[in-house]
Amino acid sequence: MLADDLIEGDIVERHLEDDDIVLFIRQPSLHKMSVMSHRAKMNMHLPQTEVAHAEAATLMAASQNLITSRNDEPLVAATQDS
Questions:
Q1: For the whole model, what pTM was predicted?
Q2: DSSP state string for the chain
Q3: Which of 15, 39, 48, 78 is surrounded by the most beta carbons within 10 Å?
């Protein structure tokens, strides 16, 4: 088995998979509304550590950033009556 040959310091990489937590960054801005986490369906920034993964999932998730920090207005609104 390949895992038996691993030693401390080896780097294990894998391909991005659906539902991985990723960061979407709109350049050049780095304010809160330009950096949010999403569930992967395409190539994006993939947090590399468990701490970065947890931070992205809890603090930067799109569902946690629905109100602007500038004036507390909603970013998401209905476009049609339901």
A1: 0.43
A2: -GGGG--TT--------TT-EEEEE-SS--SGGGEEEEE-SS--B---SHHHHHHHHHHSBGGG--B-TTT--BS---SS--
A3: 39
CA angle 30, 36, 41 (to 5 degrees): 130
CATH numbers and ranges of domains, the chain: 15-64 (2.40.40.20)
Task: Note the pLDDT tens digit of each residue in 2-58.
Answer: 888 999 999 888 888 888 888 777 666 666 667 778 787 776 677 888 999 898 888
**Region of 69 on the Ramachandran plot (φ > 0 left; ψ -120 to 50 alpha; else beta):** alpha
